[in-house]
Amino acid sequence: THEFVLASKLYAGLKKIPGVTMVGQDFSSTSRTPTLSFTVEGKTPTQVCEQLAKKNICAWDGHFYAIRAIESLGLLERGGVTRIGISVYNSVEEIDFTLAEVERIAKN
Question: Which residues have C-beta within 8 Å of that of residue 36, sequence separation ≥ 6?
Fold first, then answer.
């Protein structure tokens, strides 16, 4: 429940950031895993991850072995997606901090 609540908050917040596009299912189902994928307009997933890493936010970039799906979405040439996973040790404050950082990245 903790992971779902935090991931839902992150998903909803990311959707509101101009230039951020969510990739994948929303959080209307409580059985959804707490992992989110997104893109930031004008930035490669590698660039997004590098900027997040500077703020000690762990995120991954790439296709995650779903090459055909990423290719079908037209994202392979852009480097795939940025992915963030939520776990039991994450906090609301970390979600808020992550949202602020992604918003900063999207603006620059």
Answer: 7, 10, 11, 14, 22, 24, 83, 84, 85, 86
